[in-house]
Write a structure and sequence with these properties.
Helix content is 26%, strand content 24%. It is α/β, with parallel strands linked by helices. The chain has two domains: 270 residues, no CATH class; 218 residues, no CATH class. Strand 19 and strand 20 form a beta hairpin. The longest helix is centred in the N-terminal third of the chain and has 22 residues. The relative contact order is 0.13.
Length: 530
């Protein structure tokens, strides 16, 4: 008689939340998946995949959001409570689950709460009981307080930034879970927090020292007596005591996992001053000057301070206002139907009334092209869509847009130009409009959307490869853009995910944490065996 397949549940809540952004990630931000739809979301659980047939998988509830601001307490509590109630109901009807895959990010902030994922994990543990193995899979930019590590029988995170191994990590977490269900019992964990908190753009595995450190993480995971090894960078744009780097080495050989956890933690600490930005980084003026002086095309500039994939509100206009004032992007005059039904032959490329002046040394003859991706403003997007429906391509528009959520660095900008494209029904952005102001094409969206793929541009009629300068709201370039860029720079701009961490105003971090505090002595990097 063969043993029955283990019963494994899948649940979680995933978001990266900046506490320095005024944005709030309510219900509209989350995609909810349950039941078979949730199971089918994981490529490694597709019909015919080895892991699919290794267990009976039950999708409970998973809520996933683009990074943003803090989650309102009622939204978090509703998700947590549904997960807990569903698990309890299943347990009462069918008995305890053998295992549970807890899919979280690790940097979720809930209004009025610290360490929300630890709270979620504790609630899940109470619902499934002590006999169910919980395998937690995380982003490497998450935080790992002791409570989360204790509740999780197994815990792991990505080893690549950018996160090209996101699905591989989830599959590893599931495979480790099934392996331990066959082997019988939870392994030991050596847990250590390292008092360092750096942004992802300084800890990319594309360059040293992170490249070698994360290669070492993979090496440790293959040692005899070790099941898995993980190193978290932590999340730099939240102000909570647990925000710092962490190491967990999991396995059965206590001596090995403790030794290797300490060695990884020590290596990360010793390299703390070696971490540098993944690309040349400079303020706006230097970046634009470099892009215009270069012959490399397309030249990408990363508008990092309002990166929506790190938790920025997405509608900060500080950079766009300056691009609108650049003489290099003044471009040829446009012709199209004006508001009175006539035509306008005047192209306006300046952000009127904002007091900006063109940066020195760029010339004033225009003729350069640029794309700005992107600016969310539902009202402005609908207004442009209306102009498109009335006049089609080339119709004149004059709208104020942006800074509806985060107006700290700069207020709304005036987009006075022509409509080149409008589409509706984008699953992330809703309405997407392209407004040309001189040589600058501004992507205006109904909802926040990051632009990570070449197809994001070409699908709306834009040619990034044929454009001089492409400005994206992002940190390090995602693989598709990185491969497309002839050259690029990280632009240090203000916003809720400002790369200048010291000017954000953290005041609740555990003291001391590098680079925020001075260390009187070397930190204790002795792991705790859980």
């Amino acid at each position: 008689m063969t043993n029955p397949r283990p019963r494994v549940a899948i649940a979680g809540m995933s978001i990266e939340s900046s506490t320095f952004s005024p944005h709030r990630s309510g219900w509209e931000a989350f995609t909810l998946r349950r039941g078979g739809e949730l199971v089918a979301h994981y490529p490694f659980l597709a019909d015919g995949a080895p892991l699919r047939d290794a267990a009976d998988w039950t999708g409970v509830l998973h809520a996933r959001s683009l990074p943003g601001g803090a989650v309102p307490a009622d939204v978090y509590e509703a998700v947590r409570d549904e997960i807990v109630e569903t698990l309890r109901a299943h347990r009462a009807e069918h008995g305890p689950y053998n295992g549970l895959l807890l899919d979280i990010h690790g940097a979720m902030t809930v209004v009025g709460m610290d360490d929300a994922e630890a709270d979620l994990a504790a609630a899940v543990r109470a619902a499934v009981g002590p006999g169910t193995l919980i395998s937690t899979t995380m982003d490497l930019h998450g935080n790992v307080p002791r409570e989360l590590a204790e509740v999780s029988d197994l815990i792991t995170c990505y080893r690549m930034a950018p996160h090209e191994d996101a699905w591989e990590t989830r599959e590893r977490a599931a495979a480790n879970l099934l392996s331990r269900l066959r082997a019988g019992g939870a392994p030991k964990k050596a847990w250590l927090q390292v008092p360092v908190l750096l942004p992802g753009e300084k800890t990319s595995t594309r360059i040293e020292p992170a490249a070698s450190i994360y290669a070492d993480v993979a090496r440790v995971a293959e040692l005899p007596g070790v099941l898995d090894a993980a190193l978290w960078v932590g999340y730099a744009w939240a102000d909570e005591p647990s925000c710092r780097a962490a190491v967990v080495v999991t396995g059965d050989d206590e001596e090995v996992i403790v030794r290797e956890a300490e060695r990884l933690g020590r290596r990360y600490w010793d390299a703390r001053d070696e971490f540098a930005f993944v690309a040349p980084a400079a303020p706006y003026e230097e970046c634009v000057a470099a892009a215009l002086a270069s012959t490399a095309r397309p030249y990408f500039l990363s508008d990092s301070g309002d990166n929506p994939t790190a938790g920025g509100a997405g509608d900060v206009t500080w950079t766009l206002a300056r691009l609108l004032a650049e003489p290099a992007f003044a471009g040829p005059a446009f012709a199209g139907p004006g508001a009175d039904g006539g035509t306008s032959g005047e192209g306006v490329s300046r952000a009127e009334g904002d007091g900006l002046s063109p940066a020195e040394g760029y010339g004033d003859d225009g003729g350069r092209t640029a794309i700005y991706a992107s600016l969310p403003d539902a009202g402005a997007a609908r207004e442009v869509a209306k102009a498109w429906s009335e006049h089609g391509a080339g119709g004149a528009v004059d709208v104020e847009a942006g800074a509806r959520v985060d107006d700290g660095p700069h207020g709304p900008v005036r987009l006075r130009g022509v409509v080149e494209h409008v589409s509706e029904g984008d699953p992330d952005a809703g309405i997407v409009a392209v407004v040309r102001v001189g040589g600058l094409r501004v992507i205006l969206t109904e909802r926040r959307k990051p632009y990570h793929l070449e197809s994001d541009f070409t699908s709306i009629g834009l040619d990034p490869r044929g454009t001089d300068v492409v400005v994206v709201k992002i940190g390090y370039l995602e693989p598709d853009l990185y491969d497309m860029a002839a050259d690029w720079m990280l632009m240090l701009t203000p916003g809720g995910v400002d790369q200048d961490l010291l000017r954000l105003g953290h005041h609740r971090l555990t003291t001391p944490t590098h680079p925020f505090h001075t260390f009187e002595q070397e930190p204790n990097l002795t792991p705790t065996l859980l």
